[in-house]
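Hi there. Long-time user, first ticket. I'm pasting a complex I've been working with (about 580 residues overall). I'd like to know whether the download I got is complete or cut off, because the file seemed smaller than I expected. Thanks.
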Amino acid sequence: MNYVVVGVSAAGLSALRAIRELDPHGDVTVVDEETRPAYSRVLLTHYIAGTVEDRDLFLVEEEFYRKCGVRALLGVRATGLDPDGRQVDLTDGRVLRYDRLLVATGARAVVPGWSAPGAGGDRGGTGETGVTGLRTRDDAVRIRRAALAGHSVVIVGGGPVGVKLACALRELGVTPTLLVGSPRILSQVADREASLILERHLVRCGVRVRCGVEVSEVIRGPLGTEGVVLSDGSVLPGRLVVVCKGVEPRTELVRGHVAVRRGVLVSGGMQTSVPEIYAAGDVAECPDIWGEGTRVSAIWPHASRQGKVAGTNMAGGRDLFPGVLPRNAMDVLGTPFVSMGVLDAPAEGGWRSVSRRRGDSYLRLVIRGDSVVGAVLVGCVRMAGPIQAAIRRGGRGWEEVVAP
Amino acid sequence: MLSIGVDPGRCTRCRRCEAVCEMAHGGDGRGLESRVRIRDSGWPTIGICRHCESAPCADACVSGAIRTDPLEGTVHIDASRCVGCWSCVMECPFAAITMMVDVPGRGPRALKCDGCREWGFPLCVRYCPTGALRAGAGAGETSGRVRREHAARLALLPGRGTWPALRGRAGGGTPA
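Hi, the file is complete. Here it is re-exported in full:
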């Protein structure tokens, strides 16, 4: 059997391991555009803060691919796909034949118009000042260097990555400004009350937070980037602008060949609409745990689990992904935060929410009928796991779990 | 080293296990170091690690800090690698992860039962007066049955693989 895995991060790597477990002698080739072995994107903010060393970012050692008998083509990209001929074209001109293909190309950072290269952004640059995203190790190195050099940093986007970056910079002693387009931080992953608790905490810890503003322009001067012009007309100085406006699935390799909505549509077995092509991780769009729709959920645990399922099935085993349950955990400068599932209870249709607040400790459950379908926890989050188990088993029995 | 079994029906919430665990792991008596947590009400009564065979905490760990000991089957957190992201807390269905939020001179980190590796025997078990925590020959079966019941109660999806299994421990009983 001839396997090709495009993209080795969380999903690709766990797929690789699953394939090797079931098929020790199959021909496996991995393709990745980064030149070094797979690393943990989730750790990048910890690297910036200085709590994780550069060498600890890597998920596997340089020797890993050779040791498990995998051909690794690093520093190249897959550019074309021929599903009938079962072939993948690479940037270096090579053509790879496959019996089973895994698309684990991940996601890319969203680039708003004002930060595009033509509009004054210099993504991919290496200078300490300028405009960058936070997606790759190179991005993280650049941000850390800028912070250590004392340059002022503006973070654009109040989602999990933006907030984690703000925390990391604060730990370094830098005072970043967090610009949030929505009226509150973490608007996609927290309810209103949790957002406000965490925002107040960030401000108390020395992060400047401005909500309800967008960037309209980058100001360039003789020394490079000098700041940004905001949607309300005001000007904010800053030498490094970090854009954290979320990610989008990198579907271009398979678009037109397999069914794609926002991400590449896959079954619970991680199979696309073409049986010998699989997809997993941030690029995949999967049924949710309630079987009510499909979702792209760019989180680490989903990626590694989906990779394992895909790899197992590609190698002739049988495994099923239980479905997407969106969730996030993070530490906001000493205040733990977890959220999962559905975060808003519509006013009608048998929905309600149960919440409890003690100081800055906050718990909220979203209930549909009698079943818990979502939760937000701030401060004391120890019961997040049992709540997740309750959601997964159909939502019953949550009263016991949240008993005071 | 021996396997640990949990029978919450026998727990009187005397909290001796918390105190002993705290001392066994070098705590200062405030209970922050304890890896066992007894709840005043609700479920789970005793928050302690079941050393799952396919541990969700280890799968979720972003820094590779949580590993299964290949010989014993016990699950351990390497404190030097933990970055305190709380992903493991979010995944553990048994509420077994203790969170050290304030560590002087260091960031937050997660703690969990290590089976009292340094002591050679789990001290919470030794000092539990009612047998809610057990270990030793036979405890493997007991704990396996009881823990399976808990898992059924939590109705973990079989695919989650949280069935507890302690392998190869001297006197640890049969794998659950």
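A couple of notes from our side: Chain B touches chain A through 42 residues (CB under 8 Å). The domain at 4-158 of chain B is CATH 3.30.70.20 (Alpha-Beta Plaits).
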